[in-house]
């Protein structure tokens, strides 16, 4: 048996960065073509409702393309007609996905309709309220696109994150089951309609991809988007089932699409995509959403970048270490800092509430490029200034760097 190739940790990191689009220079002015290529590279954008800065699904585009027009995403995701490129479904959590993957997710829709693969509470609701869900489906079919609150018998929510009304539970179950989809969004609220009235006819007419074939295809796309990954990491990209995954990996290895490799200093078995780029150097500079594809798998982020990253949104304020909405800063091939950001739209200011250095990073080398990136972000968000607070070991140096830019 041939011994697997052994990669240095630095080489593995560069492969991962290149696969995610960080080894390329940003365009001087991003257009629809640049945005389309980014979507094809990533294959999935995670949607999140938190809007303290801007909604998360807009941020991967900024990280890779700079100040692109957010309307490019909105047209791709929620327009009707030829400009639509994406559909909403559960890919990596709630996600935007390329239209041509819709037939590859019908197995998940079928599983959901059978009560499998759902959050337990939603599965129970669908099982116990099937007649009500079917009545909601008929109402949408008859009345057309609508939000959950427009249902005739939707009920009232109980408040809080998961205090959904009966109507909201029904449309979420129908959405999981693929019986309805998102036609558009109204102030971020999903407006639901039948898939055949939202998605292109040529997509709906395509045959359903059998489950095993679909999972293998999604696994291959995961590897291409990541460059390399462990079995768990490749599975996580599209949240694929654990059962049978090893067999799919072995089949892709046998096919030659995946190549087993070792990464120096790391115990897990890695699989390298045969077409993965291997740049000698990466000169990236980007602020990353907490849900960016590069860092959303926290164990992988810690292994490859030695960067311990935890979301503290749900942590009580006094117990937070780094802040409410914290973005890692990518500089070159490392993550040397993180900042907690807030867009104060009333004041027209991008607030840096905290700024922390990674252990061993040099504030003098990090502050200036981070200040430049913050200025780009402020301009992209239509904010006039940057305000740096005093919290964090990078705050003072960053405030000086921001002042030098003004």
Describe the model.
The chain has 406 residues and is α+β, with helices and mostly antiparallel strands. It contains 16 helices and 14 strands. It has helices at 9-19, 32-42, 59-65, 71-78, 106-113, 120-128, 130-143, 166-176, 195-198, 201-204, 211-226, 231-237, 245-255, 298-305, 363-380, 395-405; strands at residues 5-7, 45-46, 86-91, 93-98, 181-186, 189-193, 228-230, 258-263, 270-273, 284-287, 326-332, 334-344, 349-357, 385-391. The strands form four sheets. It has a five-stranded mixed β-sheet with strand order 10-11-12-13-14. Helix 15 (363-380) links the parallel strand 13 (349-357) and strand 14 (385-391). It is globular.
Element layout with pairings:
Blueprint: E1 5-7, H1 9-19, H2 32-42, E2 45-46, H3 59-65, H4 71-78, E3 86-91, E4 93-98, H5 106-113, H6 120-128, H7 130-143, H8 166-176, E5 181-186, E6 189-193, H9 195-198, H10 201-204, H11 211-226, E7 228-230, H12 231-237, H13 245-255, E8 258-263, E9 270-273, E10 284-287, H14 298-305, E11 326-332, E12 334-344, E13 349-357, H15 363-380, E14 385-391, H16 395-405
Parallel strand pairs: 1-8, 13-14
Antiparallel strand pairs: 2-4, 3-4, 5-6, 7-9, 8-9, 10-11, 11-12, 12-13
